[in-house]
TrEMBL record:
CDD domains: YkuD_like. This is L,D-transpeptidase. Transmembrane segments: none annotated. GO terms for molecular function: transferase activity. InterPro entries: LD_TPept_cat_dom. Residues 42-56, 74-85 have a biased composition (Low complexity). Keywords: Signal. The lineage of its organism: Bacteria, Pseudomonadati, Pseudomonadota, Alphaproteobacteria, Acetobacterales. Residues 36-86 are annotated as: Disordered. It comes from Acetobacter lovaniensis.
Length: 346
């Protein structure tokens, strides 16, 4: 795995290539744009700003199957690249259609109890409020529970103004582990798949142990930028910045271990779930808009995708360990607001 300033950053394995707006990783080497620090100085927790796209990036490395794309036609579910706004009934019908598709396309799906749903919805609401996000349309949230005893991902339809959010499907994952040097605890929070960064696709390359760290060729890697994370091997849990990503893992050796903490800080998911989120564009609302004017984003998105009208862009990491879940929070105010608001200060 690539290391930046002795930080174990979840990037493509040796021989892979990252084409993004912040850094390039090729043949085990890391290059960063000028002025972009690999980690912040001690005691400073100012968010790192996105860098300038590296010159000479060959977008064919994103996925050989998508090479040569010069433009993109938005899927039929969107208008001019902008996500549609469905009413509650239509959104719930679409969520049910996705649930049926999830059962067919994700064979490793696991059931969700009413207690799990209540906990994840309550904590996701808390994270959204703390981060200052106001949902302005019904949309899918990717909720990840990093609790070492849980290690689950759940796709949830979040509906502004409604207390009854709807579960679409769930599967086991692996987040950051403790007790190993350069392994970090996956941070909680709200992480958008922003078009200020360009994700990439796995090339299926193997490391020195014969492991495909990001999964087989073509698996999607979602890049959530530099995020503060605790050092899992230190008792004082000192924090540094890691590159937070969500990606598949080796289908032979590591996928069977999902459900236990194991990663260096990123979110490992099953291959079938990776394809499901990718094919239905569940985190790609900003990418769809950018793809109409930027061929790099058009090249990254699947040609056979059918973007859902309730797609979103947010991964919400929660932790149910030691939590006393309060009664369901009051529904968010159903009002026209910007996509994101700054948290109030006072």
């Amino acid at each position: 795995m690539c290391v930046v300033g002795k930080l174990a950053v979840c990037l493509t394995v040796a021989g892979g290539f990252l084409a993004g707006t912040n850094m390039v990783c090729a043949q085990g080497m890391v290059r960063q744009p000028a002025g972009h620090a690999s980690h912040a100085s001690a005691g400073t927790q100012t968010a790192t700003q996105p860098g300038t796209p590296p010159a000479g990036v060959d977008d064919r490395a994103l996925d050989p199957a998508f090479a040569g794309v010069t433009g993109a036609t938005p899927p039929s579910s969107s208008v001019n690249g902008s996500p549609p706004v469905l009413g509650e009934d239509a959104a719930r019908q679409e969520a049910w259609a996705l649930t049926l598709a999830f059962r067919r396309e994700v064979p490793v799906a696991v059931s969700v109890s009413s207690a799990d749903k209540a906990a994840w919805v309550a904590l996701a609401r808390q994270q959204l409020e703390q981060a200052g996000y106001v949902l302005d349309r019904p949309q899918v949230l990717v909720v990840v529970d990093r609790n070492p005893k849980v290690q689950r991902l759940c796709l949830i339809l979040a509906i502004p103004g409604s207390a009854d959010w709807q579960v679409i499907g769930s599967a086991k994952v692996s987040t950051g582990t403790t007790g190993r040097q350069y392994y970090y605890i996956t941070p909680t929070g709200v992480f958008p798949n922003s078009a200020t960064r360009l994700g990439y696709r796995a090339l299926g390359t193997k490391n020195e142990n014969g492991i495909m760290g990001n999964g087989t060729t073509g698996m999607r890697v979602w890049d959530f930028g530099w995020q503060w994370a605790e050092k899992g091997w230190l008792p004082n849990r000192d924090k540094v910045q890691i590159r937070l990503e969500m990606h598949a893992t080796d289908p032979v050796y590591l996928e069977q271990r999902l459900g236990h903490t194991a990663s260096e800080g990123c979110i490992r998911i099953p291959s079938s779930l990776n394809v499901f989120i990718d094919r239905h564009g569940l985190l790609d609302t900003e990418y769809e808009q950018r793809a109409t004017v930027d061929r790099r984003f058009a090249a990254l998105l699947r040609k056979d995708r059918v973007a859902s009208p309730i797609a979103g862009l947010l991964v919400v990491v929660v932790d149910t360990a030691g939590q006393v879940i309060p009664p369901a929070a009051a529904a968010f105010k159903n009002e026209v607001t910007p996509h994101r608001q700054k948290p109030s200060v006072g």
